[in-house]
Automatic annotation (TrEMBL):
Residues of the Mur ligase N-terminal catalytic domain: 5-102
The protein's annotated pathway: Cell wall biogenesis; peptidoglycan recycling
GO-annotated molecular function: ATP binding; UDP-N-acetylmuramate-L-alanyl-gamma-D-glutamyl-meso-2,6-diaminoheptanedioate ligase activity
Annotated Mur ligase C-terminal domain residues: 310-431
Protein name per UniProt: UDP-N-acetylmuramate--L-alanyl-gamma-D-glutamyl-meso-2,6-diaminoheptandioate ligase
EC numbers, comma separated: 6.3.2.45
Gene3D superfamilies, per database record: Mur ligase, C-terminal domain (3.90.190.20), Mur-like, catalytic domain (3.40.1190.10), NAD(P)-binding Rossmann-like Domain (3.40.50.720)
One Pfam family of this chain: Mur_ligase_C
Domain Mur ligase central: 111-288
Length: 446
């Protein structure tokens, strides 16, 4: 293997940070830069001995790496990127580098879908680990069973969270077309990423590009309840397909009985909430079975699955009030998360605290679906700063149970004023949300 020095532009994103860790573990020299080098990724990378530079100063050319690896946060006009282009220096996208230097000789198991990619990837990696297969992985979150988001091993198996977002400013294909999986999970498919996709049909086209790359001796594991995925597969599929969520394939009852083609496989006993996680489990069990792990063993492994950080993660309990952190940001995921918590807590009050900060939510494309997704919450507190639309107007259908705030401290004060013992405060955002969890816990403690 030829060792190289790579310099990663946009290194503090979860995906590019994961690539940095994999490259370092493979023996390459890794440096990187980003705007806003901050924890937790900065500390994770520095612990690996990876030198970070703040900003995109063209002087970083002086590091003289063998290859610049470009994250999709980088655009034309970025001063360092402009210098790389002007000098004709070698550069490559993160997904392409991953494919050529990590996945090339691996049995890649790729998990795609609008929702549940991170959790399902973590479940799949854990099943393979429990079976003694020691998989490598790159996941867009931190699975608590492993404590890291990426690792490289000598195992032939590699699990990758396969994102449909575009690859780089110079490659507008979805990241996942680079991965050439032998096992491909299509978890679900809805409209998202309104900043780069005009409609659902455009995303279906990208998913079909992924299907075209799966070999005939591979397996496509597809959600059998999604008409969007039926349309994708109807365009052409050259690979065996196993569906989950339907009697013709993998099913799971509310009590946890798992069956394949109506043949009982085992009972799943675990603490995770919601139908969405039962569906994620089926996808992971089916994909692991393709890699040689019997379904019963996969079910046994999931009984010891500890979920992913920021997936209904309890951040603290103060005076009988529980504060959760969840990554939900798309209306479907918000509805699913609230429903899962409702199932767990029964009639106890749920105070939903929401920051609509994904690119799609900021554009307001999904704003009309937001009130319906929050119906099962008792009170809704929405942080509406930096939106291109009026959050208060959008949440009008919820009546006086919804409040919006442009000031984070005001939001914290309002939640604290109404919270009482036995309440469940569910914080949902795909970002740091200004450290609102710690602010809430501190305010509740006072």
């Amino acid at each position: 293997m030829l060792f190289m020095h790579i310099h990663i532009l946009g290194i503090c994103g979860t995906f590019m940070g994961g690539i940095a860790v994999l490259a370092k573990q493979a023996g390459h020299k890794v440096t990187g830069c980003d705007a806003g080098v901050y924890p937790p990724m900065s500390t994770q990378l520095e612990a690996q001995g990876i030198a970070l530079t703040e900003g995109f100063d063209p002087a970083q050319i002086g590091l003289e790496p063998d290859m610049f690896v470009i994250g999709n946060v980088v655009t034309r006009g970025n001063p360092l990127m402009e210098e790389i282009l002007n000098r004709g220096l070698p550069y490559v996208s993160g997904p392409q580098w991953l494919a050529e230097h990590v996945l090339k000789d691996k049995w890649t198991l790729a998990v795609a879908g609008t929702h549940g990619k991170t959790t399902t990837s973590a479940m799949l990696a854990w099943i393979l680990e429990y079976a003694g297969l020691q998989p490598g992985f790159l996941i867009g979150g931190v699975p608590q069973n492993f404590g890291v988001s990426a690792r490289l091993t000598d195992s032939p198996f590699f699990v990758v969270e396969a994102d449909e977002y575009d690859t780089a400013f110079f490659d507008k294909r979805s990241k996942f077309v680079h991965y050439h999986p032998r096992t491909a999970v299509l978890n679900n498919l809805e409209f998202d990423h309104a900043d780069i996709f005009p409609d659902l049909a455009a995303i279906e086209t990208q998913f079909h590009h992924l299907v075209r790359t799966v070999p005939g001796n591979g397996l496509v594991v597809a959600n059998g309840r999604e008409s969007s995925l039926d349309r994708v597969l109807a365009r052409g599929c050259w690979t065996p397909v196993e569906r989950f969520g339907t009697a013709q394939g993998w099913t799971i009852g509310a009590a946890g009985a798992v069956a394949f083609k109506e043949e009982f496989q085992g009972m799943l006993n675990w603490p995770l909430l919601g139908e969405h996680n039962r569906m994620n489990a089926l996808a992971a069990i089916a994909a692991a079975r393709h890699a040689g792990v019997p379904a019963g063993f996969g079910i046994e492994a999931l009984a010891r699955f500890e979920n992913v950080k920021r997936r209904m993660e309890v951040r603290g309990v103060v005076s009988g009030i529980t504060v959760y952190d969840d990554f939900a940001h798309h209306p479907t995921a918000i509805a699913t998360t609230v429903a899962g918590l409702r199932h767990k807590v029964g009639n106890a009050r749920i105070l939903a605290v929401l920051e609509p900060r994904s690119n799609t939510m900021k554009l307001g494309v999904m704003k009309d679906a937001l009130p319906g997704s929050l119906e099962e919450a008792d009170q809704v507190f929405c942080y509406g700063a930096n939106l291109g639309w009026d959050a208060a107007a959008a949440l009008t259908p919820l009546g006086d149970k919804a409040q919006t705030f442009d000031d984070l401290d005001g939001l914290v004060a309002a939640v604290t004023a109404v919270a009482r013992p036995g309440d469940h405060v569910l914080v949902m955002s795909n970002g740091g949300f200004g450290g609102v969890h710690e602010k809430l816990l501190a305010a509740l403690a006072r």
